[in-house]
Amino acid sequence: MNTPENRRRVDTSGRYSAPLLKALAVHLAIAILLFASFATAPSFEPARPIVQATLVQLDSMSPATTQTDQKIAGEAQRTAAQRHEAEELERKKQQQEQQKQAQQKQQEAQRAAAEQAQKTQEQEQKAAETAAAAAAKAKSEAEAKAKAEAEAQRKAAEVAAAKKREEAERAAEAEAAKKRAEAEAARKKAEEEAKRKAQAEADAKRKAAEAAEAKKRAEADAARKAQEDAKAKALADLLADDTQYQQAQADRPGEQVAASYDDVIRRYVSEQWRRPPTARNGMVVEVQLSMLPTGQITDVVVTRSSGDPGFDQSAVQAVRNVGRIPEMQTLSRDNPAAFDRMYRQRLLRFKPEDLAF
User: Fold this and answer.
1) Do 91 and 30 meet the contact criterion of CB atoms below 8 Å apart?
2) Phi, psi of 222 (to 5 degrees)
3) Which long-range contacts (CB under 8 A, 24 or more apart) does 209-212 make?
4) How does pLDDT run along the chain (357 residues), one tens digit per residue?
5) d(Cα 90, Cα 96) in Å, to the nearest integer?
6) CA angle 122-127-132, nearest 5°?
7) Which of 15, 97, 158, 231 has its CA 20 to 30 A from that of 310?
């Protein structure tokens, strides 16, 4: 139905639909422009669209109410138009400000790009300079390395030449040393040969002298033995008259003559003799002692061995230990001839069971 209420609704919707469409068209155009400017300029905060809507609800169906509503609607439309113009001005102002900001940002972006390009150019130039310096350094290092290698090769050649000279010198020295050693060996061999010959001659002479000396000693021993045998025979003959001799000496006035000088000798020797453990009954050893007129025993030798070296040596050591018989000095002073005949050299006989002459 075409009622007043419906007409008012239609009129009201017709009045408000045109500005709304215009507002939407303007916003769409602004959005397109902003999109185009954003595509070529740096991004910035998008503008906030202005949307204005007026809702009018008419409930009264009276004519007064309708007029009032129309009046209000007219005022509202005028107010809306003014507001729309103000908003449009504000929008244009904002758009201009945004464009200005976009241009500033674009200029800043261009300056930044220029600075970045300059910085990139400087970096490239620096990199080129660095590369050139590195190349120069590498070239210098290569030249130094080549020079060092050449110097090392030269030194190695010098070392090799010095080593070769040293080896040659050592070889020559070794050869000279070898020749010296051979000459020294030949000299030593000749000296040794001469020494051997001289030693052989000396040995031959020494052996000849020793043989002559041995012959002389044998002859002297034979003569001494013959003399000793003669003395022993004379001593035996003298001992046969020993008692008469001692009695005759005792009968001489003013002299003290021992009953028997043999007893004196036996007493001295018996005190010094020590029976060896190897001595056995039946053994007999004869020793000959030599005395000076002072009674000093000068020598003791074995004239007949018992067959036991220990027993023989004990007899010799006993006579040597006596050393001196003082009583013999009286006999040699009073009767030198009797001392010389009987006690200058005297035979002693030792037996393990006793000491006897």
Assistant:
1) yes
2) -65, -40
3) none
4) 555 555 555 455 555 567 778 888 888 888 888 776 656 555 545 555 554 555 444 444 555 555 666 677 777 777 778 788 888 888 888 888 888 888 888 888 888 888 887 887 888 888 888 888 888 898 989 899 999 999 999 999 999 999 999 998 998 989 999 999 999 999 998 888 888 888 888 888 888 888 887 787 778 767 766 654 544 444 344 334 433 444 444 444 333 343 468 888 888 988 888 888 888 888 899 999 999 999 999 999 999 998 999 999 999 999 999 999 998 998 889 889 888 888 899 988 888 765 444
5) 10
6) 125
7) 231
**Given the structure tokens 């070794």, which residue do they identify?**
174
How many other C-beta atoms are found inside a 10 Å radius of the C-beta of residue 239? Answer: 14
- The DSSP-derived string for 66-98 is HHHHHHHHHHHHHHHHHHHHHHHHHHHHHHHHH
Which alpha helices (H) appear in the chain, and where do they start and end? Answer: 4-40, 63-240, 242-251, 261-272, 309-322, 327-334, 336-342
Q: Among 305, 309, 274, 265, which Cα is nearest to 287's?
A: 305
Q: Say if strands 345-350 and 355-356 run parallel, antiparallel, or are unpaired.
A: antiparallel
CB atoms within 10 A of CB 276: 17
Closest by CA position to 24, among listed 53, 46, 54: 53
CA nearest to 54, candidates 8, 17, 7, 4? 17
The single-letter DSSP state of residue 48 is: P
Distance from C-alpha of 266 to C-alpha of 346, rounded to nearest angstrom: 12
Tokens encoding 43 = 């991004």
346-349 contact pairs (CB < 8 A, 24+): 346/235, 346/265, 346/288, 346/289, 346/291, 347/232, 347/235, 347/286, 347/287, 347/288, 347/303, 348/265, 348/269, 348/286, 348/287, 348/288, 348/289, 348/315, 348/319, 349/284, 349/285, 349/286
Q: How far apart are CA 102 and CA 66, in angstroms?
A: 50
- Report the half-sphere exposure of 33 (CA within 13 A, side-chain side): 15
- The structure tokens listed for 84 are 């729309």
| 168: exposed, middle or buried (Cβ count in 10 Å: 0-12, 13-18, 19+) | exposed
